């Protein structure tokens, strides 16, 4: 058609599809409305506003959900059209629209569909008087957990959990009139006082699921409002919310749980609820501490079957069927240890589960100065009997390798006597840090902190003495500082060859402290919180992954020595440049700088004794080796080479499957946990440090001007004019 010569545009014919049903939900209440594309967003907004009886000053927000997107904004005409597109794509006949009240505002008109600009009083207030922007919480979705008749739940536990969360989010309380696995009937707690008719019935079907068969979701009682605290917000609900956090971090403290729950879910919980929820979540993830002991028989069979060459000894009291102790070492670790340094760090640490106990460990050292877990023992305490049990089984692993192993320990309770019984004649070094801590304890109440620090420094010099002359000189200074009446009795109890470098004749690879054992204890700090079965299994997984990662890492190395030792060689070579070397006889040289040293490269020795102590050439030795035109790598201990490192991690720990645990005979064995009397007070998770282990920071006093641990207010020093 044309008018005045111009074509007349005819709008295209709009074909209307079948109406889409929208289920609008707000605070547990719901109503249905048909939607079609003749409607506008304003029509829907006004209908929702009027149906739920919002005040003119209220501001609401609409959100809808489609598969793949749980919360799509519905704020404009464009969003309204996209709602139909999403329904058409996913072939939906019904869409849930959530109504959220996000605050109150003032408007110059009460009409919602006027699309007039909403004036917010916060725009004209100072920062201190403005209301903070609404924050979304993870608990916002709880109000949509209970929808309609026919809603499906996978078991009674899921329905109970979602019903509690729904009641918390909406702001009411309910009681179970009937609460069975196949039938649940819940009513409002105000049914007796105010006659509220809210109720829910659910029945199970042949598939084991529960379906809501009857629901009156309208409250006629007063006070249905969401509060920051709720009677139903107990440990059962909190447990489901923090389970993932607990699985990642077992060290979460109740205070941290309370703070995180407040910021994430918007509710306040008590310390007791947070603590109980954490314990329940831990038990749900790892099982109970008591039941964990019954899995040890199956775990023993699984380890021995999947990892040939392993050693797993499980002792049970035959009269009571209670767990006594166990020893475990995996075949891959046993095979690889023969290519590590011939040293073993032995130490004990306490378990952190409700049954406590002690964890005895033997940890080796690889050629790259890293720790190498070999064997662990779980027992009730550090006694001579338990250490003897541990050392006997450890000896059965080491003897076939035919090496002389140097042990280092902290002289723990029962360890010394057990070691002398089992490993008589083997080198045994004492950790000098523990010795100095014990020595510092002798001065409790007898000296100030400055004097104790000086005693500790001088004891370090005595322990690090390389020659007997240096030892006697440093010992004389120590006796002068600390007093012979304390120093002499203390040192008389400790054979000098066990702690001073000058008197140890074997190769100690520079070992002076038991730090490797402490590193292993720290490495399994989280696992020590777990039940015994999970602790063993998780520790095995960590060892398995460590072996695999270090094996793959070593394949990329191109140097002759491991990276840390190669770097150490470069530093020592740089230091050797300043020495002049003078030939004496085959293999014997005099190396001179400010002092002169005798080096015998054939015997791998130097008069500075560092080559013998560290089993690594000192700068004087390297200078002599270069003067002899020899290859420096030929004079370095074999355990520092990359090929030995690769061999130490060539035998993996094999994975274990537990799919057949319940069907195996050992999987049904019942074992009682050990008898453990709970100590008084709050359970400890950290060891108390002795007086010598605590490092106090020295400060300068503003009154006397001396360095110490006192300040101007607590200063008692005499002032000399």
Give a structural overview.
This protein is α+β, with helices and mostly antiparallel strands. The chain has a seven-stranded mixed β-sheet with strand order 13-14-17-16-15-18-19, with helices on both faces. It has a five-stranded mixed β-sheet with strand order 4-3-7-5-6, covered by helices on one side. A five-stranded antiparallel β-sheet has the order 8-12-11-10-9. Helix 4 packs across helix 6, helix 12 packs antiparallel against helix 13 and helix 14 packs across helix 15. The protein is elongated, with a radius of gyration of 37 Å. The termini are far apart. The relative contact order is 0.07. The N terminus is likely disordered.
Concise overview:
With about 725 residues, this protein is of the alpha+beta class. It has 21 helices and 25 strands.
Chart the SSEs and their pairings.
Elements: E1 2-3, E2 6-7, E3 20-26, E4 29-35, H1 41-51, E5 58-66, E6 69-74, H2 77-89, E7 94-104, E8 152-153, H3 156-170, E9 174-179, E10 183-188, E11 199-204, E12 210-216, H4 235-248, H5 254-265, H6 271-286, H7 289-292, H8 296-306, E13 311-317, E14 322-329, H9 331-337, E15 343-350, E16 358-365, E17 371-379, H10 384-398, E18 406-409, H11 415-422, E19 428-430, H12 432-441, H13 449-463, H14 468-482, H15 484-492, H16 515-523, H17 532-554, H18 563-575, E20 580-585, E21 588-592, E22 596-600, E23 605-606, H19 610-614, H20 619-627, H21 642-648, E24 699-700, E25 707-708
Parallel strand pairs: 3-7, 15-18, 18-19
Antiparallel strand pairs: 1-2, 3-4, 5-6, 5-7, 8-12, 9-10, 10-11, 11-12, 13-14, 14-17, 15-16, 16-17, 20-21, 21-22, 22-23, 24-25
Helix pairs in contact: 4-6, 5-6, 10-11, 12-13, 13-14, 14-15
């Amino acid at each position: 058609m044309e008018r005045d010569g111009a074509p007349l545009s005819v709008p295209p014919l709009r074909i209307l599809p079948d109406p889409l049903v929208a289920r609008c939900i707000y605070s547990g209440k719901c109503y249905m409305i048909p939607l079609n594309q003749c409607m506008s967003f304003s029509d829907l907004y006004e209908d929702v506003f009027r149906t739920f009886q919002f005040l003119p000053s209220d501001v609401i927000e609409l959100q809808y959900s489609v598969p793949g997107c749980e919360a799509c904004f519905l704020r404009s005409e464009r969003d309204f059209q996209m709602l139909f597109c999403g329904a058409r794509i996913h072939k939906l006949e019904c869409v849930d629209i959530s109504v959220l009240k996000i605050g109150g505002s003032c408007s110059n008109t009460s009409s919602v569909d006027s699309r007039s600009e909403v004036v917010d009083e916060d725009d004209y207030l100072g920062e201190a008087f403005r209301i903070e922007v609404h924050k979304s919480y993870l608990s916002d979705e709880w109000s949509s957990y209970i929808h309609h008749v026919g809603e499906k739940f996978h078991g009674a536990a899921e329905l109970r959990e979602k019903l509690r969360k729904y009641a918390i989010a909406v702001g009411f309380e309910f009681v179970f009139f009937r609460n069975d696995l196949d039938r649940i009937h819940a009513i409002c707690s105000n049914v007796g006082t105010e006659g509220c008719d809210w109720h829910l019935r659910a029945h199970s079907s042949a598939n084991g699921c529960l379906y809501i068969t009857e629901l009156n979701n309208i409250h006629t009682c007063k006070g249905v409002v969401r509060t920051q605290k709720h009677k139903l917000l107990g440990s059962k609900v909190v447990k489901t919310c923090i389970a993932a956090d607990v699985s990642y971090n077992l060290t979460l403290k109740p205070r941290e749980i309370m703070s995180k729950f407040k910021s994430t879910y918007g509710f306040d919980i008590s310390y007791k609820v947070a603590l109980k929820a954490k314990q329940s979540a831990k038990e749900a993830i790892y099982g109970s501490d008591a039941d964990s002991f019954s899995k040890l028989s199956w775990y023993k069979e699984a380890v021995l079957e999947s990892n040939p060459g392993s050693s797993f000894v499980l002792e049970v009291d035959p009269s009571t069927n209670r767990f006594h102790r166990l020893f475990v070492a995996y075949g891959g670790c046993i095979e690889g240890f023969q290519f590590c340094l011939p040293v073993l760090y032995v130490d004990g640490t306490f378990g952190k589960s409700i049954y406590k106990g002690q964890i005895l460990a033997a940890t080796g050292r690889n050629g790259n100065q890293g720790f190498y877990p070999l064997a662990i023992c779980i027992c009730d305490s550090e006694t001579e009997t338990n250490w003897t049990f541990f050392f006997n089984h450890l000896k059965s692993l080491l003897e076939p390798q035919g090496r002389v192993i140097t042990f280092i320990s902290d002289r723990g309770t029962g360890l010394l006597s057990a070691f002398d019984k089992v490993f008589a004649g083997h080198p045994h070094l004492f950790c000098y840090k523990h010795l100095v801590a014990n020595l510092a304890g002798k001065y409790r109440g007898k000296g100030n902190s400055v004097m104790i620090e000086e005693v500790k420094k001088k004891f370090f010099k005595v322990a690090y003495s390389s020659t007997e002359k240096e030892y006697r000189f440093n010992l004389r200074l120590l006796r002068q500082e600390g007093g012979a009446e304390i120093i002499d009795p203390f040192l008389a109890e400790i054979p000098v060859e066990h702690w001073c470098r000058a008197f140890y004749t074997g190769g100690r690879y520079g070992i002076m402290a038991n730090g490797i054992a402490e590193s292993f204890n720290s490495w399994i700090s989280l696992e020590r919180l777990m039940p015994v079965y999970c602790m063993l299994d998780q520790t095995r997984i960590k060892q398995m992954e460590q072996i695999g990662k270090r094996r793959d890492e070593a394949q990329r190395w191109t140097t002759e020595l491991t990276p840390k030792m190669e770097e150490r060689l470069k530093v020592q070579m740089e230091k050797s440049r300043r020495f002049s070397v003078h030939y004496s006889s085959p293999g014997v040289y005099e190396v001179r700088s400010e002092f002169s040293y005798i080096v015998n490269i054939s015997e791998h020795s130097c008069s500075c004794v560092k080559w013998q102590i560290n089993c690594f050439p000192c700068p004087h030795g390297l200078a002599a080796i270069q003067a002899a035109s020899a290859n420096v790598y030929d004079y370095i201990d074999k355990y520092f080479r990359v090929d030995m490192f690769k061999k130490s991690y060539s035998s993996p720990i094999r994975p274990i499957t537990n799919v057949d645990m319940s069907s195996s005979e050992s999987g049904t064995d019942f074992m009682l946990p050990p008898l453990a009397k709970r100590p008084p007070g709050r359970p400890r998770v950290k060891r108390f440090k002795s007086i010598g282990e605590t490092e106090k920071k020295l400060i300068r006093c503003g009154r006397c001007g001396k360095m110490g641990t006192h300040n101007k207010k607590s200063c008692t020093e005499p002032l000399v004019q």
